[in-house]
Structure formats: C-alpha cells, structure tokens
Amino acid sequence: MSETQQHGVLVAEDEDEIRALVSSIFTLENFKVFQAVDGQSALETFTKHSAEIALVITDLGLPGLGGLELIEHVRRLKPSVRIISISGFGHYEVREKILKAGGDEFIAKPFVIDELIGLARQLLRKP
User: In this predicted model, what pLDDT tens digit does every residue of 12-23 receive, in sequence order?
Assistant: First the structure.
C-alpha cells in the first residue's frame, strides 16, 4: 500500500470542470476523494468524514460559506488537517489572508496539476 492510499482529500470547488479534474487526478494518485460544490456542503462532508480526510483543497470563492470561513471551521475541527487554497486571485494579500485563517498553502489559478500534487504530498509528509 502506498503512503497516499491512506489519505483522504476533500476537494471543495464550485467550478465543475476544475473539481472533476482535481478529483480525477487525486483518485489516480490513490487518494480517497470527497467532493463539495460549496462551502456549506464541504463543511458537512468534512464533519462527517474528518477521520478519513487529511487534506482539504478549497477554492476561496465558494458560494455561501466562503473558502476563508471554511478554512477556519475545518482548522478548529481538526488542527492536524492540511489545507491548500486555490483562487483566481493570486495576490500577496490573498495568501496572507489564507495563512491567517489557518491555511497551509496557496496556489493561484490556473495552476499546474503536478505542482498541486507535489505540494499535497509535501504537506502530508510534515509532522
């Protein structure tokens, strides 16, 4: 069993194509993938499956409960979870807000999928 087969990832993204692509790639990389189309369903999914989820990948611009709020809730529920935020707004100020909310890393859209996978593996290896 590879190291990633034991990890679950929650992909919270309202853009269908991006969510499907990221989910497919992580499935191919032997992650157990959970999906959500908005912040509220992401929080509900995380709450229900938090024992299985080691990584959350969230868009900042989620409808309803936004990405920053989702990060804050998830971090309180499970401090050890790793969180990568993605957004089309790749500014320094955005990165600072994400880190302040409890996120671990930020990748601007459009991103290279290999970069996302590499970052996920790196974060999951941290103690």
Answer: 999 999 999 999
